[in-house]
């Protein structure tokens, strides 16, 4: 005999949302024994009895999912972090004099990854059965982007390959980030920290790998080799990316194939305060990694130089992401958001702002990596608070956050370029007055500090 809870579970799995308000709790079903969602472990979307689902927060299935998702995160986002190495090679060895076109190709790569996730979010929320096919298409197209870019004969062709085709990797990646909400509950912050630490690992390691391969093998062989390795590694990891709660087959589903999206979430304060935090932090987040090589050259910092300082930032973000995720399971989200953004803003204002020598720039790079570059670990607890008990919403909200992140990526270059033309801080102390970076420093610190203030108002 089906219970009322089992009926509600059936409705969620089929996408027919219940009329009553959801009970407070995590945004995804819990382990067997949970008062509100235990029936999900004994009934599928069609209501028939099945063996218990794998446990959350641990077990072979949960950990294999998390490891595989982290591998995909590392590989997919390690490539954009090495785009500076490729950009330099394109400009010096292949297409000198086409700086604008090459910069566009490099900028599109990261920006379109975030923007395409924003488009895919609502699509996969409405049509969850498309999750696996979209991952396969994303893997094939992004792999083809690498291999085809080995045979380009003009700079505009790089826009089509690495700038437009590679961002299809977003379809491969998106389910990795959102199915995390099914596999982890009480340890979700920790799991998110592990997942997002892949970006820091990729950003630290991939530039050196790419530079070494270009030096030894040349461009064509490097792109083919990296493309084949990229496809093989992600294909192997994709085997372990699966749902904890299976969707009903199309033949079993009793209702429309399209899941109704509950847009009521957009009327909550949690949603809009989260949006404000993400938007403000994204405006300044990209500036240090974008401009540190140029800034280091301007002030004469050589050991380490600008590229090494960016690597230090990315390396510091790995323990930063893990620590931030671990703390988010134990402390209020608003407190962690506030402290993360506040310390990041102070780092931009002080050690970077006064960074006319190597020592303060190293301090800044470490602190920035531990805080601002580790902010993505806080996406998980923020999304959990926003989505409450609705398992369909994390994909939608995650897509919205990626859209905001994409805005920050696209605007950071043009805004900071215009700010560099200002001489309003000439004569001020430290790097504010001795370089033309004063307005960029203030803009970066101010936007991240504003995110800290907004975070203080995030609901408990």
UniProtKB/TrEMBL annotation:
Gene Ontology CC entries for this record: membrane
GO function terms (MF aspect): transmembrane transporter activity
InterPro entries from the UniProt entry: MFS, MFS_trans_sf, Proton-linked_MCT
Positions with biased composition (Basic and acidic residues): 1-11
UniProt keyword Transmembrane helix present: yes
Topology within the bilayer: Multi-pass membrane protein
Protein keywords: Membrane, Transmembrane, Transmembrane helix
TM spans (from-to): 65-90, 102-124, 136-152, 158-181, 193-210, 222-241, 268-286, 306-328, 335-353, 359-380, 392-411, 440-458
Coiled coil, from the record: none
Principal localisation: membrane
Biased composition (Low complexity): 34-46
Region span, Disordered: 1-53
Superkingdom assignment: Eukaryota
Location within or outside the cell: Membrane
Family under the similarity heading: Belongs to the major facilitator superfamily. Monocarboxylate porter (TC 2.A.1.13) family.
Protein name in the entry: Major facilitator superfamily (MFS) profile domain-containing protein
């Amino acid at each position: 005999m089906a219970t009322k809870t089992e009926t509600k579970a059936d409705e969620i799995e089929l996408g027919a949302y219940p009329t009553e308000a959801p009970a407070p709790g995590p945004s995804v079903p819990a382990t067997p024994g949970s008062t509100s969602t235990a029936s999900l472990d004994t009934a599928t979307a069609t209501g028939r009895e099945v063996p218990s689902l794998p446990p959350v927060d641990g077990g072979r299935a949960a950990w294999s999912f998390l490891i595989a998702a982290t591998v995909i995160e590392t590989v997919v986002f390690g490539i954009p972090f090495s785009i500076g190495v490729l950009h330099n090679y394109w400009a010096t060895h292949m297409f000198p004099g086409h700086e604008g076109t090459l910069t566009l190709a490099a900028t599109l790569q990261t920006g379109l990854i975030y923007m395409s996730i924003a488009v895919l979010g609502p699509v996969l929320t409405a049509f969850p059965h498309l999750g696996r096919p979209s991952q396969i298409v994303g893997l094939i197209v992004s792999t083809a982007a690498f291999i085809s870019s080995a045979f380009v004969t003009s700079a505009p062709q790089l826009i089509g390959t690495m700038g437009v085709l590679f961002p299809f990797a977003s379809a491969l990646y998106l389910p990795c980030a959102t199915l995390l909400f099914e596999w982890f509950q009480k340890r979700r912050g920790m799991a998110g920290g592990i997942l997002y630490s892949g970006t820091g690992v990729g950003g630290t390691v991939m530039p050196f790998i790419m530079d070494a391969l270009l030096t030894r093998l040349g461009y064509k062989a490097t792109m083919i080799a990296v493309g084949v390795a990229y496809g093989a590694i992600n294909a192997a990891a994709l085997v372990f990316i699966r749902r904890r709660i299976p969707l009903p087959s199309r033949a079993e589903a009793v209702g429309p194939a399209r899941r109704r999206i509950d847009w009521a979430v957009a009327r909550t304060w949690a949603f809009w305060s989260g949006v404000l935090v993400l938007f403000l932090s994204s405006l300044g987040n990209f500036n240090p990694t974008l401009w540190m090589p140029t800034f280091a050259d301007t002030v004469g910092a050589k050991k380490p130089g600008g590229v090494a300082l960016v690597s230090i930032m990315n390396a510091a973000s790995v323990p930063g992401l893990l620590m931030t995720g671990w703390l988010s399971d134990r402390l209020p989200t608003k407190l962690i958001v506030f402290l993360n953004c506040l310390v990041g803003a102070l780092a931009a204002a002080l050690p970077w702002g006064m960074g006319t020598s190597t020592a303060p720039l190293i301090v800044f790079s470490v602190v920035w990596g531990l805080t601002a570059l580790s902010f993505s670990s806080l996406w998980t607890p923020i999304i959990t608070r926003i989505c409450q008990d609705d398992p369909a919403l994390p994909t939608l909200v995650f897509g919205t956050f990626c859209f905001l992140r994409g805005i920050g990526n696209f605007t950071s270059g043009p805004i900071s370029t215009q700010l560099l033309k200002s001489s309003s801080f000439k004569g001020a102390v430290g790097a504010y007055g001795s370089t033309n970076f004063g307005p960029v420093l203030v803009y970066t610190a101010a936007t991240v500090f504003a995110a800290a203030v907004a975070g203080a108002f995030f609901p408990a």
